[in-house]
Amino acid sequence: MTLQEICAVMMLTVGSIWDIRWKRIPAGLLIFNVLFGAILIAANREVDWRQDWYLYAVGILIGIILLLTGRFCGGCIGAADGIMTAVIGGMIGYQETLLLLMNAVLAAAVFSILLIAIKKAGRGTAIPFLPFMLLGYIIILV
User: Fold this and answer.
1) Cβ–Cβ < 8 Å for 24, 80
2) pLDDT of residue 67
3) What is the C-alpha separation between 38 and 90, in angstroms, rounded?
4) How confident is the model at residue 12 (pLDDT cuts 50, 70, 90)?
């Protein structure tokens, strides 16, 4: 595992714990992740930034799109989900970011269907998304 992968897993794990336990991510943790992620992105020597910068910029853009979508749909997507996607997207690139989100949405959908089936939740029940992002990323790494 690379340093970026280890740090991405750690960021998602800590965020997931906060998301599950308190249904919110503290601003300080998000700011730390943004700053630390920026340092990791800048220090990544495995990337030829002159040629491949757009792969990581689009990864960040995906997170920004999620953040804006959450703002315009009244909080259907949490701000922390968009910010964490932008940070992780800048670290792993847009292709893995899209794969991570696809895995996360699929896992969240299966989990939600199970909750509805056993009558523990309804259609409007909010669930934490960062744990599914963590699961989606672990699936990619395996």
Assistant:
1) yes
2) 95
3) 8
4) very high
Handedness of CA 45, 95, 2, 131 (dihedral sign): positive
d(CA 47, CA 64): 22
Which among 71, 129, 142, 128 has a CA at the least distance from the CA of 101?
129
Structure tokens at 138: 């672990």
Nearest to 10 by CA among 28, 37, 31, 46: 37
User: How is residue 36 written in tokens?
Assistant: 């630390």
Report pLDDT digits (tens) over 96-119: 999 999 999 999 999 999 999 999
* 18 residue type, one letter: W
Cα 54 from Cα 7, distance rounded (Å): 21
76: pLDDT strictly greater than 90: no
Token digits of residue 137:
């990323």
